[in-house]
Design a protein that fits this description.
mainly alpha, about 75% helix
Amino acid sequence: MQSPVPVFVAASSGEKGLKGIVAGGITGGLEILITYPTEFVKTQLQLDEKGEMKKFNGIADCVKKTVKQNGFFGLYRGLSVLLLGSIPKSAARFGAFEFFSNKMRDESGGLTMTRRFFSGMLAGMTEAVVAVTPMETIKVRFINDQRSAKPKYKGLFHGVGQIVKSDGIGGIYKGLPATVMKQGSNQAIRFFVLFTLKDLYTGRDKTKTVPKPLVGVFGAIAGAASVFGNNPLDVVKTRMQSFDSARYKNTLDCAIQVLRQEGPMAFYKGTVPRLGRVCLDVAITFMIYDTIMDVFNLLWK
């Protein structure tokens, strides 16, 4: 008699994906409200260049000058873009991960480490296309606009309208290849590390749960691993989405120019503020997501 597990897995993939979409959307909105200032500082430092064009001497200087010039809420410039974008981004990520990971389970319902890695990669690539690229492009343009002597964007809708007017709809998809690579590697590393640590803690015993504070610790470790693993892609992605992106022929040309003009360490600009943001972000995200999914699994039958 054929095992019913594959049938069950196939049938539950869509339901798991839907739960992941709803839980992920709620999670995304909450975590961005907490972590945005570190994202703002990271982007400012990545856009900063050497010589006369250099504006900031580190994280503290960036925060100090921003607050002095634009007030405390200057650190939240571009928040509306990320807040509106984080909900579909997180929904796409977790929904895709739940869907792909369930599709990839073997006949016993297990998921190998390799398949877990690729489930995370596909989830990251999905969120890159659905939400991250347009959201990140608009965010970088808004922060870039604030750096200019005469900012021209009057608000979210005005700014987006100006970008589309000058560059067409493709203007909000600048840096798509770099973003797909970045998000794919990001989520591949994060989901792989998180669930590997969970398995080590539970011994793969499905009846044993991981305490939520420990999920947060595991999430922070996973976030740190992703930062060190793909910060060069993040720098290239940011440059490709800036006002000066026209100086680069493509993603590869951007990477080559940064290497030649600024040296290999330029690829790790913004690592410290990104590390702080990502570790906090991923820890909070996985704790919130786990909690919401626990509730859904009780109430959503």
